[in-house]
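Re: that chain you flagged

S.,

Sorry for the slow reply, it's been a week of failed gels. I finally had a moment to sit down with the sequence you sent. For the record, here it is as I used it:
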Amino acid sequence: MSSNSIVASPRVLGLLKGLHAASLAQESSFSLVVFWLFKVIRYRFAKEKWSSRDDDFMRDKFIALEPDKCELVYLLARTTGALNIVEAGTSFGVSTIYLALAAGQNAAAKATSGPIIPGQGAKVIATENEPEKAKRAKQHWKEAGEEVEPWITLLEGDLRELLPLEVNKTSQIDFLLLDIWTPMALPALQAVQPKLRHGALIVADNTAKSRAGYKDFFDYVCNPSNGFKTLTTPFKGGLEVCVYLPENTA
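Prediction finished late last night. Pasting the structure tokens below so you have them in one place:
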């Protein structure tokens, strides 16, 4: 992680450095490498899909967005002035810290008078289905402090049920990060789409590595009638950047 790309206190930068180090160490462990190898083999030859057994194995795993991707997401959110952000798939809350920094700093930049009140005019709506991961994420945000924690609204449970309700309370969504199991990518996008502003960004992780799992998502965003323009960038595993540009904006 480069401190030159992120505006944050030394405390937050130090926290992020430690979290990324823990995540990368976990990903390079023998057990996780073997897990993914056998998942690929079983999918290719037996079409075996994700199971509750896999959920059990991954319950204590970070699966955090890599540092370079997090920095890009932060800079995209800053440069587009994103105020209302959705993250589908929070896990241990690492990438959420970057999004909260961006939302808070964008709110401060647009404030003309009076104090900046987190949650009013800017927020990050994060989703996590695993209770233990949600607990760990909240601990990390608390450690990050007032730069981060007050800007986050965490939805714990099935995003297909919870996300539409929370999104409907928001005037518009400026940015969507999809860092979640591939079958949930399209449901998350469709839950948010009614509130996406014209020009909103959607970023999805591992779209080259897990292309087959993203089939429904790509069928949808590549259909011109749905209003998206998309590009797979050459980050590790592929990182999709989509722009919402519907023709009918009335």
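What I noticed first: The mean pLDDT is 87.

Talk soon,
D.
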